């Protein structure tokens, strides 16, 4: 059992960020949750972010985490996904069993990306008596067996194929029945997915909907209407929320000044950045920092 840990004081100018372990094979690394720490590991109890995805498949026990300022408790049979860039830390673990699968973002096909990220935005409870659970455990057991074996010319491709089979299985479980969701917008889901990908890459530089529309070869009105129909929010709202989330991360876990954070996120005028932060969150950046650290 790991004891709960206090929030550490930020000591660097940025949130610690880690790439996939060199133990990974072809961009995939499976770990047994009974052995949370390995010699090559970073400190999972300290706030950090990864450049890769982490899919947690907990079968027994409990994990308590903090993910982007939200407490997350995983208990029993449950699925959880932590995406690249999300600031997270392990607070407590009690006899966890299951697997953690780290994998490079490039391995996640676009067809699955939004389904997985939206469907696993909160932990997903698993029923141990369903065919889905049995198949998922079988794939994970096979993936663990392949990873433990000697590497050969095709072992990396084998692990990638098993990962994709697992992600396909999960996506099929999360996605609504095709008949229950008519294709209301035609290309709407594809446009939203492309917009979300651009947003991840350019939110700190691109603040105007026209920049995203131009990159997608769409009119501003069409992009905005499509995104709003798909998500309930405008393009500008998505840009603001994504920017403010990153601002919270930097305010909470680094010693950067509000001015420096605003500049890093594309705002040359600190007053405007402060007003935007308050508009989205209801408090000033300074108040957020004090509340988080108190």
Automatic annotation (TrEMBL):
Domain HTH araC/xylS-type: from-to ranges: 193-291
SMART domains in alphabetical order: HTH_ARAC
Pfam entry (one): HTH_18
N-terminal signal peptide: none
Domain of life of the organism encoding this protein: Bacteria
Molecular function terms, GO-annotated: DNA-binding transcription factor activity; sequence-specific DNA binding
InterPro entries the UniProt entry points to: Homeodomain-like_sf, HTH-like, HTH_AraC, Tscrpt_reg_AraC-type_HTH
Keywords attached to this entry: DNA-binding, Transcription, Transcription regulation
PROSITE patterns, per the entry: HTH_ARAC_FAMILY_2 (PS01124)
Coiled coil start-end: none
PANTHER family referenced in this protein's UniProt entry, alphabetically: ARAC-FAMILY TRANSCRIPTIONAL REGULATOR (PTHR43280), TRANSCRIPTIONAL REGULATORY PROTEIN (PTHR43280:SF32)
Protein's recorded name: HTH araC/xylS-type domain-containing protein
Organism of this sequence: Hymenobacter crusticola
